[in-house]
Amino acid sequence: MSRRREEILDAALAIADERGLDALSMRALAERVGVTPMALYRHVRDKSALLDAMVGRLLAALLPADRERDEPWAERLRSLAQVCRQVTQRHPWAAQLLFSRPAVTPDAVRAVDIIYTALLEAGVPEPEVPRLERLVSTFVIGFAASEAAGRFAPGPLDPRGRRGQLPESTLPGHSKLAPWLDLPLDLDAEFQADLEDILHMVEAAARKRPRG
């Protein structure tokens, strides 16, 4: 990737960080880097290509270091999930973009391939690998998106807690669970527990491998 294209992507990420993804336009980006909008098209074909390149930049952070490539499959998935969450914590708009764009750039495809390879090494039957990759990705990005958007805001204002205060005859399940509906303050621990549940599902899928 050319140095100028790197500068353009840096500027695009900065605009999204400062003003949100909706504020990112080719005109705003051109103003940020000090060129005309037409000059951008020598480096980025259009807005769609820019967003794809931003996905690639974000997912490049998930690529493992050399020392991590030989770790067991579960450790690689744990590391990838943690880094993905950290990326969305640094860039709260990132989950929206990751959910809305396919992985088509080289770095993005390599990040998906890490999950494919880990699932294959876990013993998951090949026909099941794409489905479980989508499950892993959706969990990680979905948790990060909910966290970034404030949906997991803890404390007495948690809407699930308020729903549990409604009359028992209206929502008996909520009434029964009222003491447990306020989310734990430790979302790190919840993320870890959820991730371990996902890994157990991977192991269960691997045990279903047909014996030849």
TrEMBL record:
Chain ranges of the HTH tetR-type domain: 2-62
Region Disordered: start-end pairs: 152-171
DNA-binding region boundaries: 25-44
Record keywords, A-Z: DNA-binding, Transcription, Transcription regulation
Record InterPro entries: Homeodomain-like_sf, HTH-type_TetR-like_transc_reg, HTH_TetR, Repressor_TetR_C, Tet_transcr_reg_TetR-rel_C_sf
PANTHER family the record matches: HTH-TYPE TRANSCRIPTIONAL REGULATOR RUTR, TRANSCRIPTIONAL REGULATORY PROTEIN
Name this protein carries in UniProt: TetR family transcriptional regulator
Species the sequence originates in: Streptomyces gilvifuscus
Lineage: Bacteria, Bacillati, Actinomycetota, Actinomycetes, Kitasatosporales
